[in-house]
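Extended Data, record LexA family transcriptional regulator
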Amino acid sequence: MSYIGNNIRKIRTVKKLSQAAFAELFGLARPSVGAYEEGRSEPKMETLIQIAQHFGLSVDLLLTKELTVNDLYGFDIFQQDLQAAPAPEASPVARADQSAALTPFVRADRLLEYIVHYHDKSFVDALPALTFPHALGPVTRAFEIQGAEMQHQQQGLRHQDVVLCRRLDRAEPNLRAGRIYAFVTPSRLLVRRLVERLGEQQLKLRADNPDYGAQEFDLGQALEIWEVKAVFTTHLRPPSALEERVSRLERQVEELLNRLDKEQD
């Protein structure tokens, strides 16, 4: 069940907008707004993204939660406070260091927005920024991984891991077999390991999870190409079977040595 109709009505109430004024903001017909609010139809994804961006909300929130007027006032006040509060002045060196280390972060719930606006500098600049220690150049991205396609035997990229990437030239990408790349396409973020180039535009890609087969990919589908250089995870890696056996043997040897020492005493 979508809550978009009720949320649009409440947004208009908080913002003191008529249906006609709301429709004008997003290039809609006034009857369309009425149809949304009455549940007779729903906005297209592009319109949803525009509404979410304009009011500082997420598409997921608009669709899956019935917002209260207090919720919306909270968002509104928060945005105003952010705009009103002057940022402390940093030294030129500090500003340079900070900008060099900042990486725009694309959360999974904002991926569709990113696909629509990836070329819009103001949109990218407004994304949350993460600070990583790296020397990958001035253009980097951090993407949140969804799914387990790149995970195998407790190794690899897990669901909700964050990958740090550097941008490659779309016209002449320097792609190497065995490395992991993130391809932003019109419909999704595809993260795969390169097996080989089949031609100038065709690639053979595979997931690290053997449950997913290899696939061919046309570089012409890629809006952006990123090379994955690092992963940041909240999952602690369990010891491998070999490491467990070695650890057990070390404990047994230590116990034997302690026993021999006691017998000699």
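Summary. Residues 183 and 225 are 5 Å apart (CA to CA).
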